[in-house]
Amino acid sequence: MTATIEYTDQGHGKAVIFIHGFCETKEMWGKFIEAFSGEYRVLCPDLPGFGESRWFEETISMEQAADMLRDWIKDLGLEKPVVIGHSLGGYVALAMAALMGDELGGLGLFHSTAFADDEEKIGVRNRTLTFVKKHGVRVFVDSFVPPLFTEAHRASMDDTIQEVVQLARKTTYEGLVSFTKAMRDRKDRMDILRGFSAKKLMIAGVLDGAVKIDSSRKHQVYVDYYHELPNAGHMGMFEEEKETLKMVREFLEIG
């Protein structure tokens, strides 16, 4: 089954694609669009089942999502776009790198990982599926989003967190279920990260509860630009906005 990819497209020049994470939407990249669209063509898609992109099946794979985005890129005539993905978006970006190779001009992992889920994380995914089937999307996302921010940021960024929760509520049941399964079942992509020939970026949160910093540090030798945010959890683009904008700008400007 195919999906129509809804997206924003602003600016001119070299294409940079920002892919959102799980239970997120293209709107989360608003500050990045604002910061970079004066110099680059900035595109932000909604993954199938999130935001405005529809998906009506309870299964999908990272490879399917990557194939859809490759077709979308070809339809738009983009040449060697840089792809930067947050969390789930990073898993999709890695699948795109496996599929497209040197058709991409760069790869960024933002609070993401090339490792497959371990047994503990697989258990979390399975419990998510059980919970969502019992309680529905809204109850899940309302409890899922706030802990992505550190406790200190939760106290000071309540308005931002509530905005992210509102975006998360756009998630369809099918999108949530299908991508939970896809994350659980995805392949280890460390060989893809290691072999990808264009420039590579990784931004990690030292206090990230979803992607542990010890795991992130194992990627450091395989990327060109590795950064840690000492006070960030899983949502550095909000928690450390100025720093992450600076890191992405430096990455885009080089090479």
TrEMBL record:
Q: What region holds the AB hydrolase-1 domain?
A: 16-242
Highest taxon, organism lineage: Bacteria
* One Pfam family named in its UniProt record: Abhydrolase_6
Q: Provide this UniProt record's keywords sorted from A to Z.
A: Hydrolase
Q: Which GO terms describe its molecular function?
A: hydrolase activity
Per the UniProt entry, the signal peptide is none
* Matches recorded under InterPro entries: AB_hydrolase_1 (IPR000073), AB_hydrolase_fold (IPR029058), AB_hydrolase_sf (IPR050266)
For this entry, the protein name equals Alpha/beta hydrolase
Supply the source organism for this entry.
Echinicola soli
